[in-house]
Amino acid sequence: MSKVLKVGIIGLGAIGKVHADAYSNVEDIEIGALCDTLPDRLQEHGERLGVAARFTDYRELIKSDVDAVSICVGNALHREVALAALENGKHILLEKPMAMNAAEAAEIKQTGEKHGKLVQVGMVRRQTTEAQLVRDMVERGLFGGIYHMRAVLIRRRGIPGLGGWFTTRAESGGGPMIDLGVHHFDAAMYVSGLWNPTRVSAKTYAKFGRDMRSYRYTGMWAGPPKFDGVFDVEDYSTGLIRFGSEATMSFEIAWAANTEEESFIEFLGDKAGARIFDKGPLTLWTEHDERPADITPKYADLGNPFHTQARKFLAACRDGDPPAATAEQGVTVMKTIDAVYASSENDREIELS
Ligand SMILES: NC(=O)c1ccc[n+]([C@@H]2O[C@H](COP(=O)([O-])OP(=O)(O)OC[C@H]3O[C@@H](n4cnc5c(N)ncnc54)[C@H](O)[C@@H]3O)[C@@H](O)[C@H]2O)c1
User: Fold this and answer.
1) Structural Rg of the chain based on CA atoms
2) 35 lines ligand 1 (CB under 6 A)
3) How many angstroms separate the alpha carbon of residue 173 from the centre of ligand 1?
4) pLDDT digits (tens, 9 = 90+) for 90-141
5) Fewer CB atoms inside 10 A, N or C side of the chain?
6) Where are the chain's structural domains?
7) Mutate to test the pocket of ligand 1, among 72, 98, 128 (most ligand atoms within 8 A of CB)
8) 309 close to ligand 1 (CB < 6 Angstrom)
9) pTM above the 0.70 mark?
């Protein structure tokens, strides 16, 4: 491979545009080709980015001379497009969730290994400054042993695209658990280093989206609502994940709930605790000089996490660095999410294999 990584982007919706902007900001990456089934969107981004190689069929793009592709289509297409790209010798940066379920994710991982191509999963939140900083502190022992985490992401009324692909299980794989929970689960496991979820006990609910016409909201991204569409996913989930007998994580992930909006991941260690992705400044709850003490560290901002993700993708494809988020980790997160749904459906704790 030359010094410059030539990438194609498949899917030019909300996140495809973010990938394009990130690649445009990273030295030694060139956007070589674009694909979307919507010709107007394809033309608009092609002109904006100055990319002449444009395709409405991704099977044509993956035959072009790009080294790698960003896969930014809806969840139901992740497996199909990922396998085709890997089989055609392309490295992939695959948006989250890695796939619709763990079986699909494992197939993508194996196909990457078989063809000697890289799979980096788009778990971008671990590239945020707070996640990187706290992970570094955890690795240096500042937290002691982490024994519990709380992953909370609650929107008051935040169902995206009611009736569209987000709320149609056959297209999305699930509701906020697979849409947002995937980010929180990944970031929690990444920062804590706890990659051994063993048991899951969970419950999901659908209390707001099912009766589409009575859903009251102030704004809707990926909207407007399609009242003749489908809502067959959850809008709230809660549960407990065990990591062996040493650690646990409780979670609450919601697109809609009658409570305050909240978003954080809390790490409880026997030497210190902290929350990331919370409102105020990062605070370490710890002890100092034989007293409980709150420490607010000063630190440099690491910049846009999508740019960091793109830079790490370049380094992984070109220089053989480890990918920013591995396929193996992606499979672990998907197995945990599968177990959340299975636990809820079967009303029992699920043991992960
Ligand atoms: N990392 C993040 O924070 C983040 C944020 C948003 C979305 N996502 C993920 O990105 C993916 C896309 O989400 P989105 O919000 O951008 O969706 P979107 O609907 O805005 O965009 C999807 C795009 O794919 C195009 N498309 C559909 N079928 C296609 C095909 N066969 N070939 C080529 N293009 C096709 C659509 O026309 C559309 O432009 C999802 O998996 C989602 O979970 C990740």
Assistant:
1) 20
2) yes
3) 14
4) 999 999 999 999 999 999 999 999 999 999 999 999 999 999 999 999 999 9
5) C
6) 5-125+306-324, 128-303+334-351
7) 72
8) no
9) yes
